[in-house]
Design brief:
By secondary structure, this protein is mainly β. 0% of the residues lie in helices and 51% in strands. It has two domains: 82 residues, Carboxypeptidase-like, regulatory domain (Immunoglobulin-like, Sandwich), CATH 2.60.40; 88 residues, Immunoglobulin-like (Sandwich). The protein contains no helices and 17 strands. The protein is globular, with a radius of gyration of 17 Å.
Length: 172
């Protein structure tokens, strides 16, 4: 399924996350870890989608120390001033948007978007492809940094032979 996230004028929205929540079916647990790196005094990637329960490593590839934190309700944590990679990853147990910052470098910010489904994709230029979706009913949702807590949503029915293209207007 190809999903394009657009603004009110129909232009693709940058740094979006698209995800499909199966309706009436159980969701498999996460199978992989994720990485939110720090390079050139920036978080990389700026927006990281993960499934609920995913462990995320926070390596510091810079030649300066960082102190990563979040005060977001979905996950509050702090990684004290460090170089290299902390010994333990941060596990994101609750769905929601987690805003990241660095206590040392105020301009550093990023987002971990925690979703209750293994079917998600980044849409850095407003377009994402969700692959290998089993047939069934889904609520397809999208989020981007300008939408705050709003998630655009649309219900879809996917048959085994379907190749859907869907446009979701971005919130705000």
């Amino acid at each position: 399924m190809t999903v394009t996230v657009t603004d009110a004028e129909g232009r693709p929205v940058r740094d979006a996350v698209v995800y499909a929540v199966p309706q009436g079916r159980p969701v498999a647990p996460p199978v992989a870890r994720a990485v939110m790196d720090q390079r050139d005094r920036q978080f990389v990637p700026r927006v990281l989608p993960v499934q609920t329960g995913t462990a995320v490593d926070f390596p510091n590839s810079d030649d300066v120390r960082h102190q990563v934190y979040s005060f977001s309700p979905a996950k509050r944590f702090q990684l004290p001033l460090y170089e290299g990679t902390p010994q333990h990853p941060v596990v994101f147990e609750r769905a929601g948007v987690v805003v990241l910052g660095c206590n040392i470098h105020d301009r550093m910010s990023a987002y971990v978007v925690v979703v209750d489904t293994p079917h998600f994709a980044s849409a850095p230029r407003g377009k994402a492809e969700l692959r290998n979706l089993p047939p069934g009913s889904y609520e397809v949702r999208a989020w981007h940094p300008g939408s705050g807590a709003e998630h655009a949503a649309r219900g879809v029915e996917l048959a085994a032979s379907d190749h859907l293209s869907l446009e979701l207007p971005a919130g705000r």
